[in-house]
Amino acid sequence: MLDTPLGLKSQARRHLAIIAALLVSGWAMLAGPATVRAAATAGTTTLDCGQIQSAILGYSVAYCVDLPADYAAGAKRYPVLYILHGLFENERSWAERGGKDVLDGMLAKGELEPFIVVCPDAGKTFYVNSYDGKARYEDFFVQEFVPYIDQHYRTVANPAERGLFGISMGGFGSLHIGFRHANLFGAASAQSAALLPKLPNPFPATRRWQFYAQLLQEPFGSPLNEAYFEASNPIDLAEHPDTFKNLKLYFDCGDKDRYGFQEGNQLLDQELTSEHFPHEFALRDGDHGWSYEEEYMHFALQFHSQQFQQAIASTSPAKKAAGGRSK
Question: What's the whole-model pTM score?
Protein backbone atom coordinates (compact mmCIF):
# COMPACT_ATOMS: atom_id res chain seq x y z
CA MET A 1 0.00 0.00 0.00
CA LEU A 2 1.14 3.51 -0.71
CA ASP A 3 1.78 6.02 2.07
CA THR A 4 -0.11 9.10 0.82
CA PRO A 5 0.54 12.65 2.11
CA LEU A 6 -1.78 14.34 4.57
CA GLY A 7 -4.17 16.78 3.01
CA LEU A 8 -4.41 14.78 -0.22
CA LYS A 9 -8.18 14.90 -0.12
CA SER A 10 -8.39 18.67 -0.14
CA GLN A 11 -5.77 18.85 -2.89
CA ALA A 12 -7.61 16.28 -5.01
CA ARG A 13 -10.87 18.13 -4.66
CA ARG A 14 -9.28 21.14 -6.29
CA HIS A 15 -7.95 19.13 -9.22
CA LEU A 16 -10.92 19.65 -11.51
CA ALA A 17 -9.05 18.88 -14.70
CA ILE A 18 -9.34 15.16 -14.18
CA ILE A 19 -12.97 15.35 -15.23
CA ALA A 20 -11.64 15.58 -18.77
CA ALA A 21 -10.91 11.87 -18.68
CA LEU A 22 -14.59 11.13 -18.80
CA LEU A 23 -14.54 12.15 -22.45
CA VAL A 24 -11.65 9.97 -23.54
CA SER A 25 -11.11 7.28 -20.88
CA GLY A 26 -11.82 4.68 -23.55
CA TRP A 27 -11.73 4.41 -27.34
CA ALA A 28 -14.76 4.00 -29.54
CA MET A 29 -14.87 0.53 -31.02
CA LEU A 30 -16.59 -0.55 -34.21
CA ALA A 31 -19.27 -3.11 -33.39
CA GLY A 32 -19.28 -6.35 -35.29
CA PRO A 33 -22.05 -8.92 -35.73
CA ALA A 34 -24.18 -9.71 -32.73
CA THR A 35 -22.74 -13.19 -32.35
CA VAL A 36 -19.16 -14.16 -33.05
CA ARG A 37 -17.09 -17.25 -32.42
CA ALA A 38 -13.42 -16.62 -32.99
CA ALA A 39 -11.55 -19.69 -34.22
CA ALA A 40 -9.37 -21.02 -31.44
CA THR A 41 -5.83 -22.02 -32.06
CA ALA A 42 -4.20 -24.63 -29.89
CA GLY A 43 -4.02 -23.47 -26.27
CA THR A 44 -5.84 -20.16 -26.79
CA THR A 45 -9.14 -19.11 -25.31
CA THR A 46 -12.26 -18.97 -27.47
CA LEU A 47 -14.40 -15.84 -27.75
CA ASP A 48 -18.17 -16.34 -27.70
CA CYS A 49 -20.37 -13.23 -28.08
CA GLY A 50 -24.12 -12.78 -27.88
CA GLN A 51 -26.92 -10.75 -26.32
CA ILE A 52 -29.22 -10.93 -23.33
CA GLN A 53 -32.66 -9.33 -23.35
CA SER A 54 -33.03 -7.32 -20.15
CA ALA A 55 -36.44 -6.84 -18.58
CA ILE A 56 -34.94 -4.31 -16.16
CA LEU A 57 -33.36 -2.13 -18.84
CA GLY A 58 -35.96 -2.76 -21.54
CA TYR A 59 -33.36 -3.51 -24.22
CA SER A 60 -30.83 -6.18 -25.14
CA VAL A 61 -27.28 -6.01 -23.83
CA ALA A 62 -24.36 -7.38 -25.84
CA TYR A 63 -21.65 -9.40 -24.14
CA CYS A 64 -18.58 -11.48 -24.94
CA VAL A 65 -17.36 -14.52 -23.03
CA ASP A 66 -13.80 -15.79 -23.35
CA LEU A 67 -13.78 -19.53 -22.72
CA PRO A 68 -10.79 -21.65 -21.63
CA ALA A 69 -9.11 -23.68 -24.38
CA ASP A 70 -10.41 -26.98 -23.00
CA TYR A 71 -13.95 -25.72 -22.30
CA ALA A 72 -15.57 -27.69 -25.16
CA ALA A 73 -13.70 -30.87 -24.33
CA GLY A 74 -15.45 -31.75 -21.07
CA ALA A 75 -17.87 -30.83 -18.31
CA LYS A 76 -15.50 -29.00 -15.97
CA ARG A 77 -16.72 -25.85 -14.23
CA TYR A 78 -14.57 -22.74 -13.97
CA PRO A 79 -14.24 -19.60 -11.88
CA VAL A 80 -15.48 -16.50 -13.67
CA LEU A 81 -14.01 -13.00 -13.96
CA TYR A 82 -16.23 -10.12 -15.10
CA ILE A 83 -14.19 -7.47 -16.93
CA LEU A 84 -15.78 -4.01 -17.09
CA HIS A 85 -14.78 -1.69 -19.94
CA GLY A 86 -14.03 2.05 -20.02
CA LEU A 87 -16.03 4.99 -21.33
CA PHE A 88 -16.69 4.89 -25.10
CA GLU A 89 -15.74 1.21 -25.20
CA ASN A 90 -17.91 -1.89 -25.39
CA GLU A 91 -18.01 -5.63 -24.79
CA ARG A 92 -15.41 -6.29 -27.51
CA SER A 93 -12.83 -3.75 -26.39
CA TRP A 94 -10.99 -6.04 -23.96
CA ALA A 95 -10.41 -8.65 -26.66
CA GLU A 96 -9.73 -6.24 -29.53
CA ARG A 97 -7.43 -3.87 -27.61
CA GLY A 98 -5.10 -6.62 -26.39
CA GLY A 99 -6.55 -7.97 -23.14
CA LYS A 100 -7.22 -11.40 -24.63
CA ASP A 101 -3.63 -11.55 -25.89
CA VAL A 102 -2.32 -10.84 -22.39
CA LEU A 103 -4.55 -13.57 -20.95
CA ASP A 104 -3.58 -16.13 -23.61
CA GLY A 105 0.11 -15.34 -23.17
CA MET A 106 -0.05 -15.83 -19.42
CA LEU A 107 -1.96 -19.09 -19.79
CA ALA A 108 0.59 -20.36 -22.32
CA LYS A 109 3.38 -19.66 -19.82
CA GLY A 110 1.52 -21.41 -17.00
CA GLU A 111 1.22 -18.16 -15.04
CA LEU A 112 -2.56 -18.55 -14.62
CA GLU A 113 -5.01 -21.35 -14.07
CA PRO A 114 -7.93 -21.24 -16.56
CA PHE A 115 -11.03 -19.23 -15.77
CA ILE A 116 -13.93 -17.80 -17.77
CA VAL A 117 -13.83 -14.10 -18.69
CA VAL A 118 -17.10 -12.20 -19.21
CA CYS A 119 -17.29 -8.70 -20.77
CA PRO A 120 -20.72 -6.97 -20.90
CA ASP A 121 -21.52 -3.75 -22.75
CA ALA A 122 -22.35 -0.93 -20.34
CA GLY A 123 -22.45 2.17 -22.53
CA LYS A 124 -21.78 5.28 -20.44
CA THR A 125 -23.60 4.06 -17.33
CA PHE A 126 -20.63 3.94 -14.93
CA TYR A 127 -22.23 0.60 -13.92
CA VAL A 128 -24.66 2.32 -11.53
CA ASN A 129 -28.41 2.78 -11.50
CA SER A 130 -29.03 6.18 -13.05
CA TYR A 131 -30.31 8.93 -10.80
CA ASP A 132 -33.52 9.27 -12.83
CA GLY A 133 -34.17 5.53 -12.62
CA LYS A 134 -34.35 5.09 -16.39
CA ALA A 135 -31.17 3.02 -16.73
CA ARG A 136 -30.84 0.61 -13.80
CA TYR A 137 -27.62 -0.96 -15.01
CA GLU A 138 -26.43 -2.04 -11.57
CA ASP A 139 -29.70 -3.90 -10.96
CA PHE A 140 -29.46 -5.51 -14.40
CA PHE A 141 -25.90 -6.63 -13.73
CA VAL A 142 -26.49 -8.29 -10.37
CA GLN A 143 -30.09 -9.46 -10.80
CA GLU A 144 -30.14 -10.57 -14.45
CA PHE A 145 -26.69 -10.75 -15.99
CA VAL A 146 -24.75 -12.73 -13.38
CA PRO A 147 -27.55 -15.35 -13.06
CA TYR A 148 -27.75 -15.55 -16.87
CA ILE A 149 -24.03 -16.28 -17.16
CA ASP A 150 -24.25 -18.91 -14.41
CA GLN A 151 -27.15 -20.58 -16.24
CA HIS A 152 -25.63 -20.56 -19.73
CA TYR A 153 -21.95 -21.24 -19.00
CA ARG A 154 -20.20 -23.72 -16.73
CA THR A 155 -19.21 -21.29 -14.01
CA VAL A 156 -18.69 -22.06 -10.34
CA ALA A 157 -21.66 -20.17 -8.96
CA ASN A 158 -20.32 -19.03 -5.62
CA PRO A 159 -18.81 -15.67 -4.60
CA ALA A 160 -15.33 -16.99 -3.83
CA GLU A 161 -14.89 -18.03 -7.47
CA ARG A 162 -16.53 -14.95 -8.99
CA GLY A 163 -14.48 -11.77 -9.48
CA LEU A 164 -14.71 -8.23 -10.88
CA PHE A 165 -12.00 -6.38 -12.81
CA GLY A 166 -12.53 -2.91 -14.27
CA ILE A 167 -10.51 -0.43 -16.31
CA SER A 168 -10.99 3.37 -16.08
CA MET A 169 -14.81 3.87 -15.98
CA GLY A 170 -14.96 0.11 -15.49
CA GLY A 171 -12.65 0.49 -12.50
CA PHE A 172 -15.21 2.82 -10.94
CA GLY A 173 -17.84 0.18 -11.70
CA SER A 174 -15.82 -2.74 -10.35
CA LEU A 175 -15.18 -0.99 -7.05
CA HIS A 176 -18.75 0.34 -6.81
CA ILE A 177 -20.36 -3.04 -7.46
CA GLY A 178 -17.78 -4.92 -5.40
CA PHE A 179 -18.31 -2.69 -2.36
CA ARG A 180 -22.10 -2.80 -2.68
CA HIS A 181 -22.52 -6.48 -3.59
CA ALA A 182 -19.77 -8.32 -1.75
CA ASN A 183 -22.26 -11.15 -1.22
CA LEU A 184 -21.92 -11.94 -4.94
CA PHE A 185 -18.19 -11.39 -5.51
CA GLY A 186 -15.19 -12.68 -3.61
CA ALA A 187 -12.69 -10.26 -5.14
CA ALA A 188 -12.58 -6.96 -7.02
CA SER A 189 -9.78 -5.19 -8.85
CA ALA A 190 -9.35 -1.98 -10.81
CA GLN A 191 -6.69 -0.37 -12.96
CA SER A 192 -6.62 3.37 -13.69
CA ALA A 193 -10.03 3.62 -12.01
CA ALA A 194 -11.87 6.86 -12.88
CA LEU A 195 -12.06 8.04 -9.29
CA LEU A 196 -13.08 11.64 -8.57
CA PRO A 197 -13.15 12.81 -4.95
CA LYS A 198 -16.30 14.83 -5.70
CA LEU A 199 -18.03 16.78 -8.43
CA PRO A 200 -17.03 20.44 -8.79
CA ASN A 201 -19.68 22.81 -7.52
CA PRO A 202 -20.37 25.02 -9.31
CA PHE A 203 -19.37 23.30 -12.51
CA PRO A 204 -17.15 25.49 -14.74
CA ALA A 205 -19.26 27.35 -17.31
CA THR A 206 -16.97 26.88 -20.30
CA ARG A 207 -18.23 25.00 -23.35
CA ARG A 208 -15.78 22.15 -22.77
CA TRP A 209 -16.69 21.66 -19.13
CA GLN A 210 -20.39 21.78 -19.90
CA PHE A 211 -19.87 18.95 -22.38
CA TYR A 212 -18.18 16.89 -19.66
CA ALA A 213 -21.07 17.66 -17.35
CA GLN A 214 -23.49 16.42 -20.00
CA LEU A 215 -21.66 13.09 -20.13
CA LEU A 216 -22.05 12.67 -16.39
CA GLN A 217 -25.74 13.54 -16.41
CA GLU A 218 -26.76 10.14 -17.77
CA PRO A 219 -25.77 8.27 -14.59
CA PHE A 220 -25.69 11.06 -11.99
CA GLY A 221 -28.62 13.34 -12.80
CA SER A 222 -29.51 16.40 -14.84
CA PRO A 223 -28.55 18.73 -13.33
CA LEU A 224 -25.75 16.73 -11.73
CA ASN A 225 -26.74 15.54 -8.28
CA GLU A 226 -23.73 15.76 -5.98
CA ALA A 227 -25.34 13.72 -3.22
CA TYR A 228 -26.14 10.87 -5.59
CA PHE A 229 -22.62 10.92 -7.00
CA GLU A 230 -21.15 10.70 -3.51
CA ALA A 231 -23.51 7.84 -2.62
CA SER A 232 -22.16 5.96 -5.66
CA ASN A 233 -18.50 6.97 -5.35
CA PRO A 234 -16.16 4.12 -4.26
CA ILE A 235 -14.13 6.61 -2.23
CA ASP A 236 -17.19 7.40 -0.12
CA LEU A 237 -18.35 3.76 -0.03
CA ALA A 238 -14.93 2.83 1.38
CA GLU A 239 -15.83 4.68 4.58
CA HIS A 240 -18.03 1.70 5.50
CA PRO A 241 -15.83 -1.40 5.09
CA ASP A 242 -18.12 -3.46 7.33
CA THR A 243 -20.42 -3.79 4.29
CA PHE A 244 -17.71 -5.57 2.25
CA LYS A 245 -15.52 -7.02 4.98
CA ASN A 246 -14.77 -10.30 3.16
CA LEU A 247 -13.97 -8.76 -0.22
CA LYS A 248 -10.43 -9.26 -1.53
CA LEU A 249 -9.25 -6.05 -3.16
CA TYR A 250 -6.51 -4.96 -5.56
CA PHE A 251 -6.11 -1.71 -7.52
CA ASP A 252 -3.33 0.27 -9.19
CA CYS A 253 -2.87 3.42 -11.24
CA GLY A 254 -0.17 5.16 -13.24
CA ASP A 255 1.80 7.86 -11.45
CA LYS A 256 1.62 9.93 -14.63
CA ASP A 257 -2.07 9.33 -15.37
CA ARG A 258 -2.82 12.17 -17.76
CA TYR A 259 -6.26 12.66 -16.22
CA GLY A 260 -5.01 12.83 -12.66
CA PHE A 261 -6.79 9.67 -11.54
CA GLN A 262 -3.81 8.78 -9.36
CA GLU A 263 -5.08 11.32 -6.84
CA GLY A 264 -8.45 9.61 -6.44
CA ASN A 265 -6.79 6.19 -6.29
CA GLN A 266 -4.35 7.36 -3.64
CA LEU A 267 -7.25 8.82 -1.69
CA LEU A 268 -9.08 5.49 -1.83
CA ASP A 269 -5.93 3.74 -0.57
CA GLN A 270 -5.66 6.31 2.22
CA GLU A 271 -9.30 5.80 3.23
CA LEU A 272 -9.05 2.00 3.26
CA THR A 273 -5.81 2.18 5.24
CA SER A 274 -7.39 4.47 7.81
CA GLU A 275 -10.22 1.95 8.16
CA HIS A 276 -7.66 -0.88 8.58
CA PHE A 277 -9.14 -2.71 5.60
CA PRO A 278 -6.67 -5.18 4.01
CA HIS A 279 -6.03 -4.44 0.35
CA GLU A 280 -3.30 -4.18 -2.28
CA PHE A 281 -2.56 -0.87 -3.98
CA ALA A 282 0.30 0.20 -6.23
CA LEU A 283 1.17 3.46 -7.93
CA ARG A 284 3.05 2.36 -11.03
CA ASP A 285 5.26 4.11 -13.55
CA GLY A 286 2.88 4.91 -16.37
CA ASP A 287 0.08 6.91 -17.96
CA HIS A 288 -3.54 6.00 -18.74
CA GLY A 289 -4.96 3.76 -21.46
CA TRP A 290 -4.16 0.51 -23.20
CA SER A 291 -0.42 1.11 -23.21
CA TYR A 292 -0.70 0.98 -19.41
CA GLU A 293 -2.84 -2.15 -19.58
CA GLU A 294 -0.42 -3.95 -21.89
CA GLU A 295 2.32 -3.42 -19.33
CA TYR A 296 0.42 -3.98 -16.09
CA MET A 297 -2.78 -5.96 -16.70
CA HIS A 298 -0.96 -9.13 -15.67
CA PHE A 299 -0.95 -7.95 -12.05
CA ALA A 300 -4.76 -7.87 -11.91
CA LEU A 301 -5.12 -11.23 -13.70
CA GLN A 302 -2.59 -12.83 -11.35
CA PHE A 303 -4.46 -11.41 -8.37
CA HIS A 304 -7.72 -13.02 -9.45
CA SER A 305 -6.10 -16.31 -10.42
CA GLN A 306 -4.56 -16.52 -6.96
CA GLN A 307 -7.90 -15.75 -5.30
CA PHE A 308 -9.60 -18.43 -7.39
CA GLN A 309 -6.94 -21.00 -6.54
CA GLN A 310 -7.23 -20.24 -2.84
CA ALA A 311 -10.98 -20.76 -3.08
CA ILE A 312 -10.51 -24.06 -4.93
CA ALA A 313 -7.95 -25.24 -2.39
CA SER A 314 -10.39 -24.54 0.44
CA THR A 315 -12.99 -26.83 -1.11
CA SER A 316 -13.39 -29.92 1.04
CA PRO A 317 -11.76 -33.17 -0.17
CA ALA A 318 -15.15 -34.88 0.08
CA LYS A 319 -16.72 -32.37 -2.31
CA LYS A 320 -13.83 -32.72 -4.74
CA ALA A 321 -14.10 -36.51 -4.65
CA ALA A 322 -17.81 -36.26 -5.37
CA GLY A 323 -17.13 -34.20 -8.47
CA GLY A 324 -18.59 -31.00 -7.03
CA ARG A 325 -16.80 -28.89 -9.66
CA SER A 326 -18.11 -30.83 -12.63
CA LYS A 327 -21.48 -30.75 -14.33
Answer: 0.85
Q: Residue 172 maps to which CATH number?
A: 3.40.50.1820
The CA dihedral of 218, 26, 208, 204, to the nearest 10 degrees, is: 60
- Strand-pairing partners, residue 188, are 164, 249
258: in domain:
yes
Burial of 15 (0-12, 13-18, 19+ CB in 10 A): middle
Residue 4 domain-assigned (yes or no)? no
Distances (CA, A) of 120 to 10, 89, 240: 35, 10, 28
State yes or no: pLDDT of 10 exceeds 70: no
Give residue-wise pLDDT tens across range 57-82: 999 999 999 999 999 998 999 999 99
Give the separation between CA 94 and CA 30, rounded to whole angstroms. 13
Give the pLDDT confidence of 83-129 residue by residue, as tens digits: 999 999 999 999 999 999 999 999 999 999 999 999 999 999 999 99
Task: Provide the residue range defining the domain that includes 174.
Answer: 9-312
Long-range Cβ contact pairs of 5-10 (< 8 A, separation 24 or more): 8/263, 8/266, 8/267, 8/270, 9/197, 9/267, 9/270
